[in-house]
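Thread: quick sanity check before group meeting

JM: Hey all, I'm pulling together slides for Thursday and realized we never actually wrote out the predicted structure for the chain we discussed last week. Dropping the sequence here so it's in one place. If anyone has concerns about the input, flag it before I start.
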Amino acid sequence: MKIFHFHLMPYAHMDLDAIREAGSAWVTLSNKHYDPIKGAELYNEYLDQMEFADQLGFDGLVVNEHHQTAYGLMPTPGVMAGALARRIKNGKLAVLGRALPLLNNPLTVAEEYAMLDNITRGNFIAGFVRGIGAEYHSFGTNPAESQERFAEAHDLIIRAWTEPGPFAYEGKYYKFKYVNPWPRPYQQPHPPIFIPSSGSLSTIRWAAQKRYTYCQTLAPFDAVARTFDLYRQEADKAGYEASPDQLAWSNAIFVRETDEKAMRDVRPHLEAYMNEFLTRNPAMMSPPGYSSVESIKRVRAIKAVRGGRQSAEEIIEKGMVIVGSPNTVREKLAACQDRARFNISLTKTQFGTMPHALVTENQIAIAEEILPYFRDRQPQTPRAAAE
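JM (edit): ok, ran it. Output follows.
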């Protein structure tokens, strides 16, 4: 299994009462609650954590994109990726991903990703997303155009990477007299592509048809397993057998000496992450036209399982995070890998309000106790596991 270090970069100094009063950590939570002095310190701590993860032997570093929220301070993930590109020495660098429909010019992503691919000498992974529903309110973008704009932007980027320019492009949403980006990608024909999603059926089907790696965002593990089964079914329809390397699970792991100590230390930060930082206005999350009826039903079924305030015990019981002693974490992660047959873990070691010192201790514990066990581990069938 490949274990990547995934960072959301939340505003860890957030006044949680302010989120409760606002009713959401997204879009409408006033930025008066952001202190630039504390924020600057956080950015540098988070970059330190990412660089440390590379030194510890994680298989890659992952950043992502979110807007107008305390949940994640990376509206432009390329800035963070650029800060890391020259510093990492061992693993991959992934941006998962840029929200293509929110952009007026998707060629900027083609250029940005090609630069990162060159700087890392081909150790870059490109991620594309549609962006969550709330971000269409932040950008004033028509959500009914989301899927079409995403598909057109994606196709244009792939052409820009693989077809010599200059050439003219005349699409429904994007029109260019000259498509001729410099530089070209280091990896040919282009970097590997990962597609994160909260479980949208249309996204799963599209990713399987394209043979891209599908990344399931945070969800109860029963839902994750069903989603990966669905990806395999869609791959079968497309005429091939999906590999475990095409499936990535976004999770969070916390390791301490004992289960009891792990629960005690993680509780306030895990509960803040799930109950405050993930608080969203339901109406903003599903703007009209953003998803098909079929996809809405599927995503709502997933999210219904994690609705309402939850205790750390409930969150762990649902398999949304893995917390415990080294033995407990190894056993649970192995069981998840075998059940859902995935081979990439996008692992958060910091979440919610967790302070820097505790994150560093968690990273060291994962590197020493978890990474070596999974370095060459593949999903096992029940028979193979018994043997």
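AS: nice. Confidence is low (pLDDT under 50) at residues 383-387. Residues 274 and 354 are 13 Å apart (CA to CA).
JM: adding both to the slides.
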